[in-house]
Amino acid sequence: MSEIELSAGIIDFTDTGGDGEVVVLVHGLGFDESVWDQVVRELRGAYRVVVPVLPIGSHRRPMRPDADLSAHGVAALLAEFLERLDLRDVTLVQNDAGTAQLLVGVRDERIGRLVLTSCEALGNYPPGIQGRTLHAASRIPGGLFLLLQSFRVPFLVRMGSSLGGMAKRPIPYALVRRWYRPPLTRRAIRRDLAKFCRGIRKDTYLRAAAKLAHFDRPALVAWGAEDRMMPPATGRRLAELLPRGRYVEIPEAGTLVPLDNPEALCAELRRFIRENPTEAAHGQEAESTPG
Q: What is the pLDDT of residues 140-152, one digit of tens each?
């Protein structure tokens, strides 16, 4: 993996490189870049695919003790990441967390297209029993550490009130061990996760929704058709708010769309990018046209 030092600390990221259009994939709370592995494999031949590891629970490098790790603070880190790598006209794809929405109308100048797949939005924050439990545990001394112990037990992980309720397909336990080893074994990572959870404000994405109506670039809302944690009705409302938004449902998928049905998601991404060329893409076509 590559790394870059940002204002909050060092961030790991993967980058397939190349001259293709840039697709930036953003994971959710308690996950890392591996949640996007199958999507990266599908897209890397045609696009430059970049996946940052944001400091929201499964990161391997703790942030500075004074770092702002609220939802808005993490969104600011994402914007800083795009700027430091000088990524322009990116197709920004978000899953699970609502981070990308918080850039709209604030620091969205590098976004050429926006894709939201089954994520926190509107009044669904913290989302589902999983989000509410995590938020409550973070406010009790030692509560977050005790809750994290459940991820050591495969049976508990598979329960509908845990990760099992976020995916249509069984999640390989090797991935669960990977995601939760950092917060289980490092106090500084748990500190970062707790800062994010304690900073949750229920109106965060209701406030962000007011800015979505002014986002004038192409937007795709690709929701898991069988999502129980992020209801499809929320996705439809999001698409209606976005002036150039289109709503599609990804079959056989829950919240973790990139794990459940990466093939269908990638097909929608390719179509969306092809049908909505950015200014940079127009320029590349003009340069490649003879005469």
A: 888 899 999 999 9
> What token pair was written down for 226?
């069988």
d(CA 24, CA 51): 6
Question: Under a CB-based contact definition with an 8 Å cutoff, are residues 35 and 48 in contact?
Answer: no
Give the tokens for residue 102.
């918080």
Q: Residue 77: how many CB atoms within 10 A of its CB?
A: 24
- Answer yes or no: are the C-beta atoms of 196 and 71 closer than 8 Å: yes
Q: Tokens 């406030």 label which residue? A: 207
Q: How far apart are CA 260 and CA 169, in angstroms?
A: 6
Torsion angles phi and psi, residue 241, rounded to 5: -75, -30
Beta carbons of 74 and 204 less than 8 angstroms apart: no
Contact 108, 215 (CB under 8 A): yes
Contact 222, 117 (CB under 8 A): yes
Q: Is the pLDDT of residue 214 over 50?
A: yes
Tokens of 255: 């919240």
Prediction pTM value? 0.94
Which pLDDT does position 229 carry in this prediction? 94
Contact 27, 97 (CB under 8 A): yes
What does the block give as tokens for 259? 């794990």
Per-residue tokens: 11: 């961030």
Identify whether the C-beta of residue 258 lies closer than 8 Å to the C-beta of residue 39: yes
